[in-house]
Amino acid sequence: MSLSGVMDESAHPPRLPPLTALLVVLTFVTGMIEAVSLLALGPVFTAMQTGNVLFLAFGAAREGTLPALAPAVSLAAFAFGAVCGARLEGAAEALGRRWFVIGLGIEGGLILVAAGAGWGLTARYGEPTGRHMTVAALLAATMGMRNVTSMRVNVPGLPTTLVTRSMTSFLGGSALGQDGAFGYGTGAWARRAAAVLAMFAGGTAGALLVRAGWPVNWLLVPPGAVVLAVALAYLPQPRLHAR
């Protein structure tokens, strides 16, 4: 693993190095967060903003019954988080600080703040209340920061907040696609498959907790704690430099 955080597609066997494993865990967390956002706070996306853009488009066309206010709030909060994340992590790197750990530490803290804002709040699907949208906005700002962190690390096939590219790369570089542009014949398939499975597992776990009747605050405590654990786990690893 180079200091840039970029993994060479052809230089690694199909295994999970420390950084890659931690990013897979963060992908799992994204699945949990989106399950809470969609099933307990919305429907609204907080990490995958493509869905919110489409919700707003449907609302502009006045077609369907999906609310447009929550997606608009999420988009604005996500943009705010992305700007803050870029400025914060860029400044931290310029000062020689461990921007990856700092970014994840703030992310975990914000998820727990969102849990506090949703204390005792009942999971609700459809027509979210003001408190539901407040929690969703906090999560969207957090995921805006996460997207900055993921793009600065820039591990191919592991964006941590969506799996479309990971799935496409996995299939293109598989025995079915056989495309060398996607790393066919290398070990790149392992992390791509892990990313897809982690998102699925995180979404399943979050959905099961919502189904079990957990209030919003307890739904968010596990993902917040996991992100903080990932930040601590990376402390012994080499300092990253964004590419």
Textual characterization of the structure:
The chain is an all-alpha fold. The protein has one domain. It contains 8 helices and no strands. Helix 1 packs parallel to helix 7, helix 1 runs antiparallel to helix 8 and helix 3 runs parallel beside helix 5.
| Average pLDDT, all residues | 89
Low-confidence stretches: 1-14
Secondary structure class reads mainly alpha
Put simply, the count of helices is: 8
Relative helix content = 55-70%
Count all strands and give the number: 0
The coarse silhouette is globular
Per DSSP, what share of the residues sits in E-state strands of 2 or more residues?
A: under 5%
Give the tally of structural domains.
1
Task: List the SSEs and their pairings.
Blueprint (H helix, E strand, L loop, with lengths): L17 H24 L7 H12 L8 H26 L4 H19 L12 H24 L10 H9 L16 H23 L4 H19 L9
Helix pairs in contact: 1-5, 1-7, 1-8, 2-3, 3-4, 3-5, 4-5, 4-8, 6-7
Characteristic terms for this protein:
64% helix, mainly alpha, globular, disordered N terminus, 243 residues
Brief digest:
With 243 residues, the chain is mainly α. It is built from 8 helices and no strands.
